[in-house]
Amino acid sequence: MRYGSALAVLCLTACSSAGVGDHCADRSDCGGSLQCVADVCVPGCQRAPDCGDGYACEPDGTCREATGQLGDTCTSEVECAPGLSCSFDPMALTSLDASCVAESAGRAPGETCAADSDCRNGTCAIGRCVDLCDDTRDCVEGTACTLIPRVEAGGRTFSACLAAFGTIAWNIPIPGPSSQILLPIPSSATSVAVTFEVEDPLQLVGATSVIAPDGVHHLVTLSDDSSTWPNFSDPVRHEPAAGQSVLAMPSSPATPLVAGAYSMIVKSLHRDGSPGSATPTATAVIKVDAAVLLDLHFYFLDFTDHPCTTAFTSTMTAATAQTASFFQNDYLGALRSVFADGGVSIGGITYEDITDHPELDSPEATTAASLLALGAFPTGVNIFFVRTLSPIGLQAFGPNPGPAGLANTPQSGVIVSLDTLCYQNWAEVARLTAHEVAKYMGLYENVDLNNNNDPIGDDVDSTPSDNLMFNSELGGTTLSPGQRAILSRSVVLQ
User: Fold this and answer.
1) Using alpha carbons only, how large is the chain's radius of gyration in Å?
2) Which residues contact 466 (CB under 8 A, 6 or more apart)?
3) Is 211 left (phi over 0), alpha (psi -120 to 50) or beta?
4) What is residue 246's three-state secondary structure?
5) What was the pLDDT predicted at 313?
6) pLDDT, tens digit (0-9, with 9 covering 90-100), for 323-364
7) Which burial class, exposed, middle or buried, applies to 214 when counting CB atoms under 10 A from its CB (0-12, 13-18, 19+)?
8) How far apart are CA 68 and CA 147, in angstroms?
9) In this predicted structure, what is the pLDDT of residue 270?
10) Which residue from 139, 311, 389, 393 has the least number of CB within 10 angstroms?
11) Gap between the Cα atoms of 211 and 239, Å rounded
12) Collapsing DSSP states into helix, strand and coil, what is residue 178?
């Protein structure tokens, strides 16, 4: 009898609990991890969007209806009642004070934007519409509550929901041929690449000054005398170049990327360093996760009657490369091994023939831009195999660093000459390719030359002759811990 009474009590407390979709008066009516919302049992929440517009998700998994009304101050979207958004005052751009306002008909969070007015919730940051937040629970799945510098407020930071994976690219407006701009870096970013461009290929473009968010550390300082570029003593190496240049940070573990607004002076210049007349454009790309996949996109020019065909066993085409053991095993196998040592894995691979540009089968370094502009993939690295490169002796060619996130630009890829196979094997061509791709991703020669042809050691720790970045065919495939750190952070990775 006593056992029966105990069972009855147990059933009253558990057996009668309502399930998903059942009517309830409060949470105690719902079983397990369910909660009572609008008199219905529903699953507990993980994030505020699970609850719907105008609700917050509490740490215990319950939805709490927002109480913020029109005009009330707020710090997160979840504080404002349904139909309202938490937004900065559009009439006071330099202020970070926010209040509940009526939602507009603008773009949804995560979509691209150029101004606050483009966004439904009234805030545009690093080219994306974002929701203000206090915690990642306030954000949709796939995003995280992140500190973001607000350019309009002089770089002061605020918290907003930003993509937690992949890369984010946006354009930075530049008003004239010589302008000071702010580059906002959110707290979640691990690396950044900024590509500067001008339409006139005869003019140089780039940043002549970069100052860290603390306002004290000058990371790039270039004089008006272009013969002194690049400044090898700068913590971040960068050099303006004709038509297009890229600045990548960090370029050394000794100068990590930090959250905040970097101040830059961006200019167009003539080759002697005098002021230019073209207005630059700038595209920034940040990496916000630890992804280590490197996509490769192979292009094959015409190798008919190539003198090194004994290394091909047949003519070298995209179809051949996808099946031949010398390419899949000897070349790609060696390439995978080199990058694995750098903490990078080869991801997606594409193959394509270029048959309608015979003038580019054997390009010169000075005209390589025409070939690289055919690089159609903005992610990963476009790799062009050509018959030969000029001047004689040049085995490969590419930018250092490359324009991550951009396709069809004069620097969208690297070029590898297959006449190298007349005296080397496919594994050595893989080492040559890895060297150029690593430069594209932000590594420098471990022994470089200044403008007086004096050797300058890279400030990333490495040993000379057996290192991947030794600029000689006698170099090796090893990478130092510092080089691995920079390589694995590259914006090129997905």
Assistant:
1) 28
2) 475, 476, 477, 478
3) beta
4) strand
5) 77
6) 999 999 999 999 999 999 999 999 999 999 999 999 999 999
7) exposed
8) 23
9) 94
10) 393
11) 15
12) strand
User: Which H or E element spans position 318?
Assistant: helix 318-323
Strand-pairing partners, residue 68, are: 80
* Domains identified in the chain and CATH numbers: 73-167 (no CATH), 173-287 (2.60.120.380), 293-489 (3.40.390.10)
Are 301 and 361 in contact by the 8 Å Cβ rule? The answer is yes
Count CB-CB contacts under 10 A for residue 141.
Answer: 9
pTM: 0.89
Neighbours of 12 (CB within 10 A): 10
- For residue 117, what are the CA distances in angstroms to 86, 103, 109? 14, 11, 13
Query: Residue 175's CB: how many other CB atoms inside 10 A?
Result: 9
Residue 215 region by backbone torsions, left for phi larger than 0, else alpha for psi between -120 and 50, else beta: left
Q: What are phi and psi of 310, to 5 degrees?
A: -60, -25
Instruction: Please provide the size of the chain in residues.
Output: 494
Give the span between the Cα atoms of 436 and 423, in whole angstroms.
19
Sorted by sequence, the CB contacts under 8 Å of residue 196 that are 6+ apart come out as: 205, 206, 207, 240, 244, 245, 246, 247, 266, 280, 281, 282
SS3 for 397-453 is ECCCCCCCCCCCCCCCCEEEEHHHHHCCCHHHHHHHHHHHHHHHCCCCCCEEECCCC
Q: Which positions of the chain have pLDDT values less than 50? A: 1-16, 455
Dist. CA 307–CA 130, nearest whole Å: 57
